[in-house]
Amino acid sequence: MKKFPEGFLWGGATAANQFEGGWNLGGKGWSVSDVARAHFDADVKDYNKHVSITTKDIEEGLAHPEDEVNYPKRHGSDFYHHYKEDIALMAEMGFKTYRMSIAWSRIFPNGDDLEPNEEGLKFYDDVFDELLKYGIEPLVTMSHYEPPLNLVLNYDGWYSREVIGFFTRFVETICTRYKNKVKYWLTFNEVDSMIRHPYTTGGLVEDRFEGKNFEEVIFQAMHHQFVASALATKICHEIVPDSKVGCMLTKLTYYPYTCKPEDVLAAQQKMRSTYAYSDTQVFGEYPAYLLSYFKNNNINIVKEADDDRIMKEYPVDFISFSYYMSSCEAADKTGLDVTPGNTILAVKNPYLETSQWGWQIDPLGLRISLVELYDRYRKPLFIVENGLGARDVLTEDKKVHDQYRIEYLKKHFECMLDAIVEDGVELMGYTSWACIDLISESTKQISKRYGYIYVDIDDYGNGTYNRYRKDSFYWYKKVIENNSVDF
Ligand code: BG6
């Protein structure tokens, strides 16, 4: 029987902006996600409709603070009031770790405040204490689509260099406060994602940059995030000496559509473009790919004298990533089917099945990704997001028979084992997205459910918020108990 390595960190993952709720309680300020409106009737292929936000959209959101129907992230799954029950359920499954994020605007409501909000700090103290009571190790994302809205409106988000200072103040505050409670940290969720959703990740609103090259704006903002991430790693290591700090990338995996060399080249270039950001965080310098891209597209990044040194001196300790799907790339895409995926629209792979939202299911792609990442970086890997978004049905006796999710996970776990045992990959752990149902980032629906635990609300926030164990809950518990998928 193949087993996972001893001490393997099994667990689950969530993010405050999608899960926590309590968006205006305990002194929390507005975050970018609190004004991100749902588009309930939009086509899933129209991802941009969900993510491009204008100044007018923000004003609209600010003008309707009472509206939690069209702004479902405001209520999330109400972890804010359910954290004890939720953590007890995680403990029942045997979680070794729980990945969560700290909402920046709960600690610094406006982002630029000089003093932190004690009530916010206390909330996470309580959460961490509860986790530690059960021996569950927190794995904390410092920023997961949660820049405070004030930084968008008064500083133009991460485009402003000043935001680096606000962020490092936040990092210093949380590292100091939780130094005896949190050892595993991630800096920015899907650091590459600013290119695909500049608002959620970078607080960038295109109509505020009239007359500027918006792509250059995005890369400038990204540069600030790279410097901030390196500084966060430095701060964290200084304050929490035994801490481990990781980067977090969206592991998009592209295959050549055919073996035509033109398609192979197209896929290789696509992969280089997806690795460019983690390359920067792991090797501490911009890769040749990005430098050529900047040059060829007349993108000029403004740097300060110390930036290159800072990025070089404080690379990450491990590489974490999300993996949901793979897709294809072709030199000529005319006539080829496209399919939506994790924040992308890509060429469909005729050999793969898809989820109800069109994401292509590819367990072997996870093994391929693990091998690629390990060979490239030679640092420990951590899968911090993976899972199946599906329409679950709660039966009258409050059960959810989600055999499809069990199958999906089992196949992925077998591929992880092969990568560890056959391919020699060093994998620290696995936290499935999302262990408890929460609001989807792309579609803002809770009916796109990922959890082992069902949360009884519908897309409009109607329901009891009661939690129910799905069939996958009992299955995952056994996986953790046996440290294996054979039992
Ligand atoms: C990742 C994000 O890209 O994918 C999560 O880090 C997100 O925040 C997850 O929820 C799944 O995507 P979606 O759109 O189905 O919620």
TrEMBL record:
Q: Which SUPFAM superfamilies does this entry report, sorted A to Z? A: (Trans)glycosidases (SSF51445)
Q: Per its UniProt entry, which superkingdom is the organism in?
A: Bacteria
InterPro entries referenced in this protein's UniProt entry, alphabetically: GH, GH_1_N_CS, Glyco_hydro_1, Glyco_hydro_1_AS
User: Catalytic positions?
Assistant: E385 (nucleophile)
Record's keyword terms, sorted: Glycosidase, Hydrolase
Q: Name one Pfam family in it.
A: Glyco_hydro_1
Protein family per UniProt? Belongs to the glycosyl hydrolase 1 family.
Q: Record's PANTHER family?
A: 6-PHOSPHO-BETA-GLUCOSIDASE ASCB-RELATED, GLYCOSYL HYDROLASE
Please report the name of this protein according to its UniProt entry.
Answer: Family 1 glycosylhydrolase
Instruction: Please name the source species.
Output: Holdemanella hominis
